[in-house]
Amino acid sequence: MITKLSKNISELFINKEVIHAEDREVYEYSFELLISSIISLIIITVGAIITGTILYTVFYLLGFIPLRLVAGGYHAKNHLRCIFILIITYITFVLISHFIPNNYMVIVILSCITASVVLVFIIAPSEDANKPLTITEIMKFKKKSRYIIIVMVAIIGLLIIIISNNKIAFSMTMGVLTVSVSLLANRIKQMLLRKKYIV
What we know:
Elements: H1 2-15, H2 24-51, H3 54-71, H4 79-99, H5 105-123, H6 135-162, H7 166-198
């Protein structure tokens, strides 16, 4: 459905001479990502309203989006699977944040952010068959990923010190951790794929 819609939008733009026909594939892929991102954002917004976690969701996304854009991570085979994984991840985040007592939050935050820093420094950026990176891009995204994770650690540290409600810092930490786990999942996936072709 998303692929068909992106093709229709690209076709419309070509017919209106807004884009060139030879750039069709680039625009189709871009529209697919845009539509998928909008659907995902709508789902998360509805989930945040239903669960009453709008503030926490905002901080989760502030931890997730900047790092994901430069570090990469696991890519599902299609948009439906991607949206499904997003829903499961978001539900997990809401449940964890609901059940962890506030007096344990700092320990959990420090453990999760330490694991995230290690994973980002070792793995990022993570490339995919659909998104191969040049050596120059790898070096650029590696540097940006490390810079962003350090900034995130500083922000999370300030949130712990300044705001007594540790769920805000925890939410941002979970956003960062989601990307880090996604990096690890993609690394394992690539290793399994290479092993499959080698054997």
